[in-house]
Amino acid sequence: MPIRSIIIGTGSHVPQRVVTNKDLASRVDTTDEWIRTRTGIIQRHISNDQETNSYLATQSARKALDMAGVRPQDLDLIIVGTMSPDMPMPSVACLVQNELGAKKAGAFDLYAACTSFLYALSVADKFVRCNSRMKILVIGSEVLSRVTNWEDRNTCVIFGDGAGAAVITGTKEDRGILSTHLHSDGSLGELLIIKGLGTAFPVSHENLEKGWQYIQMQGREVFKHAIKAMESAAWEAMEANGWNGDDVDLLFSHQANIRIINFLGEKLGLPKEKIFINIHKYGNTSAASIPIALDEANRTGLLTPGLRILMVAFGGGFTWGSVAMCW
Ligand code: COA
Description:
The protein is about 35% helix and about 25% strand. The protein has helices spanning about 20-25, 30-40, 55-70, 90-100, 115-130, 155, 205-210, 220-240, 260-265, 280, 290-300, and strands at about 5-15, 20, 45, 75-80, 105-110, 135-140, 160-170, 175-185, 190-195, 215, 250-255, 310-315, 320-325. A 5-stranded mixed β-sheet has the order 1-7-6-4-5, sandwiched between helices. A hairpin with a 3-residue loop joins β12 and β13 (about 320-325). α3 crosses α4 and α8 packs parallel to α9. It is globular and about 55 Å long.
């Protein structure tokens, strides 16, 4: 039996403060009705000044480690998927490493926007397949509220803050991660972009006035690409494992828009009870969306041994991909 990666613990953490659609309707020209029907979002959690990306990531990590029964000092590697780090350097992963006291762990951040967690999980999977004893902490964590223009109704109604984590190790049993498929198309990067927080367009009065420090999104275009890419990544995973729709027990789609999730479920022929949805509570938490969902499902007892799980995500870059696993 080949070595496979398994998830032995999950955790998640979201900021305390809840912002409802009604709260947003008092700030920008929108309504609760529009947001609910067009996105499926009812509320989102928004960080205060203390709830930084690394803080949320560390909290989610502690819960995952606790569930896994793994001590921080036994971790070999920490990978944080994010596009809203505390700062460019040190990485969120290094801040988490220090907070946890994970003395022997390597640590790095991975940038693939909303697909970051699946990218990070894929990387962790490759390490574990080489050395089944490795213990890797994979986190998806975002504080997108800090890079959102709260006067732009196209974006501010969608995103939320949060973090989710998973502890990965190896097994020779016939379960765990079965396949990973990653894709990208940089030619479409401009459709979903934070232009001004890097080194090409450094912070300046001029660039701040243009709003380049914020997420800018051409929502309708992104939507069209997202549904196509996610459907194709889902079929790719299913074909690789010889699955048809009936073989998927639970779908974890990136929680970007309820209409995207339902569309994907329909295309795959999945009944509603096989599609995990929590977008109404958190909005789009980007890299944190799938690990928060996984943790919620895990803690409510939905993830039973042998369950066949399909995870599919799409995000800026563009990036997209899928991970199939047997729990
Ligand atoms: N409240 C009220 N009206 C709004 C609005 C808001 N928050 N945002 C946009 N509108 C208006 C638009 O101005 C437009 O008005 P018009 O017809 O008078 O021009 C109308 O609603 C439709 O706008 P459109 O952008 O076509 O809406 P949509 O149905 O595509 O929904 C998104 C917008 C952003 C919710 C949707 O496109 C989406 O979810 N996109 C993908 C998001 C995604 O996947 N993100 C990246 C992956 S992480």
